[in-house]
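During the no-cost extension, the postdoctoral fellow (Dr. R.K.) reprocessed legacy sequence entries with the updated structure-token encoder. One reprocessed record is reproduced below for audit purposes.
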Amino acid sequence: MKPFLFFMLILTLPHANDLLERVDRNLQPVSSESYKKLVNIEPDGSKKEFLLYQVKKGKDKMVSLFLEPESEKGRATLRLGDNMWLYIPNVGKPIRIASMQSVVGGVFNNSDIMRLDFSAEYKVIEQKENSTQYILNLKAKNDTVAYDKLIMTVDKKTLTPKKVACYSSTQMLIKTLHYKDIKKFAPGIVRPAIVETVSPFYKGYKSIMVYGKITPKHFANEVFTLENISKVGTLRR
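Re-encoded structure tokens follow.
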């Protein structure tokens, strides 16, 4: 009987890339709007905070609007796959920005702030597990992705990340993301509300992302265009 039970366990174990897709869906619906706060903390304890409204559709579209502070209000960012732009009111047309740069400073870069599905950018090349968690070794699908390799620790109970270590192509640790405070945001959306990051390149600095609201919602493709990047605020209800 024991060999038979073990055999069934192997058969029902999720395929690694399917597991990554499930992690993505637990973090955020395919199409949704969300509000989140970014907090940059400096070594002396001083803080700078930003409030963002974000809209996501599918695996490759996201647009963000800065609501606070007043000095950033009205700025917007657009991400289409690997391409990103920043719109600044009264400063002409949107400008291209890079994934490893940061429109807010701090440890989070633009790729972190405008995070698409992990499965859109990475494939699982190795999966390990113990009684409480999966360890997924992820490799970037192309060289335009911000990080060449991720090592993701996934909680088995919630199928959400606990930690993501981000590496360069030379195997250098760039930063580590810690996912905390599991909350229910909407039916079917139970995920960490807080993401904290530290980096060996930013000694004494820390950045925190706090999700306040995530709501499933459908949007037209026209929302995610350079022509409409200045109109993101009209989507809020």
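Residues 1-14 have pLDDT under 50 and may be disordered. Residues 163 and 178 are 5 Å apart (CA to CA). The remaining legacy entries will be reprocessed before the final report is submitted.
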